[in-house]
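Sample A.
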Amino acid sequence: MSFALSEDHESFRKVVRDFAEKALAPNIERWEAEGKGLPTEAVQGMAELGLFGLTAEEEYGGAGADLTTLCVAIEEIGRVDQSLGITLEAAVGLGINPIATYGTAEQKAQWLPDLVAGRALAGFGLTEPEAGSDAGGTRTKAVLENGEWVIDGSKAFITNSGHELTSVVTVTARTGTTADGKAEISAIMVPTNTPGFTAEPAYRKLGWHLSDTHPLTYDNVRVPEANLLGQRGRGFAQFLNILDDGRIAISALAVGLAQGCLDHSLAYALERKAFGQPIGKKQGVAFQLADLQVAVEAARLLTYKAAWLKDSGRPVKEVKQAASIAKLYSSEAAVSATRTAAQIFGGYGFMEEYPIARFYRDAKILEIGEGTSEVQRILISRGLGLPVE
């Protein structure tokens, strides 16, 4: 049994790491200080490297690569900056993948070439002010009138939804009632230039300052009936399937953060001196670094195991369980890693000019986005056969 990535994956890792360290890392502090949100030049840089099209079909300009390849890219971007890592993850996982998986030939031809090339971004409007983990509680409505969907409602915390490059946001909405009285949820693609669609001012967030995140308003938004994505009434189920890949990708993002904490902390422990010796010589620091190394390795193994299961076509149930396990462990390990790194850096870990402070701010959302830690524990418990509510 081999736990090593292929030579191609490792070669690709070196390419992405070189790009992240040379093209992204030197600019992150400036981009954050400017306070303008997601820098277009960063998106363009990732696009030139082909990162947005890694898993897309070749006929639309993609590379047709596996999920493991995408995870490698997200890990390496996330090792430098989480905001840009989530930009890539959401652009592919929530923007491109739903269209590539459930879109018609016409929808794919219309939207995928620009999205795959990074000339445009797409968002996915699922979460609402009162419907987060309980996505089945969606209140946004879409009524079919004279060949058009008329959409009214609001969404919250939507990534890549209001940037100058954003061209389309897929929205989940109640389109009727099922035979058993439950809400029928469908997914509908809404171009961002549609009258009545508004990306409200960006959130002021604790972290992910370079990520584009907005609340959305749909006020009598009208789009063609043909903008339905996938089957009517299957929007929620479709999105749950998309989330399996997303959770593995978020896990890779968390691995990148933990690895970044380890890299910076190790370098600091070797150069920072106290009482005439490098602090890394002290067991109190050395043991913290050792524990951090263990957490990084465990998180990485869980992440790439889940990606391998998906790439190998293993049963959906098996992939779902592995995705939740990886996401739960890696996200919580990342949060702990930032706390450890800040402790090793001491007062400097509290200063904004050091990346540790940014990592600390960015980490918490990993335990919340794409399924909270509590949701992951519910899913894992169900996977064990327990009758969890």
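Sample B.
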Amino acid sequence: MRAITYSSYGSADNLELSELPVPKVGPDSVLVRVKAASVNPVDWKVREGYLDGLMDTVFPVVPGWDVAGVVEQVGLDTPEFEVGDEVFGYVRKDWMQAGTFAEYVAAPVRTLAKKPAAWSFEEAAGVPLAGLTALQTIDRAGVSEGDTVLVHAAAGGVGSFAVQIATARGARVIGTASEKNHDYVRSLGGEPVAYGDGLLARVDELAPDGVDVILDYVGGVMDTTSELLSDLGVVVSVADPTARTEHDGIYAWVRPSSDDLDELGRMAEAGALSVRVDQVFDLADAADAHRASETGHAVGKIVVRV
């Protein structure tokens, strides 16, 4: 099968199109014929070696954790899926090696769910890691009807899902974004504010009694915005461990979950969750997809079509 690989840590120049054997399928896994995958910032951070202290790496590595495709083969004990099922998932394993930037990936059933008919394969591939991150941080923060939620990086991959999910739960959402993306944040149901100098005053004007939840998807904002919390407010960050160590909040790491993917799918079918695909690259151009992610300027998701 064709796959994108890298044989050592380094820049996107290390990515190359290779030929690899089709993966073996374990008893609780299925073989997915990949239609699309997506790039997340963690993908190039792993490639650069930044997560080497957290996860074992077996070279050559096929990058990518997000996938959308069709079940080609089932394992010995996988009653959840049949051959031909359209699926999407966050195929993160306990080590780095056999990712989703390939024609096939062996995926444990706990990492997959049925793809909603409302989404194309490209849209579905853009959802798993970012959508699960948004959903799980919102769950851990206990967001509910009537809460005021401040979402940092509201126009980004994770933030755009968080705005929609929190709004669907009846929360009022204020989202930081550059001014060029304010209309996009409004279209998701949020109230945009420009980040940078004067952010505290702008949020305080909108929510003079403070915010109930701060969701940080960018990092570097704890010291300046934690004072916006109401007395019983909570902060959740996926980018800054000081949320837990210094601000009595939560530092979150997204987990694969079929149940949570199912919830995202139900929201999609109900018209409550949309996906914005910013750019689509062919598999052979995966290095360019990584470079596009590294700029930090994507609005929505960067997808690789297989």
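B remarks: Residues 136 and 217 are 13 Å apart (CA to CA). The longest helix spans residues 128-141.
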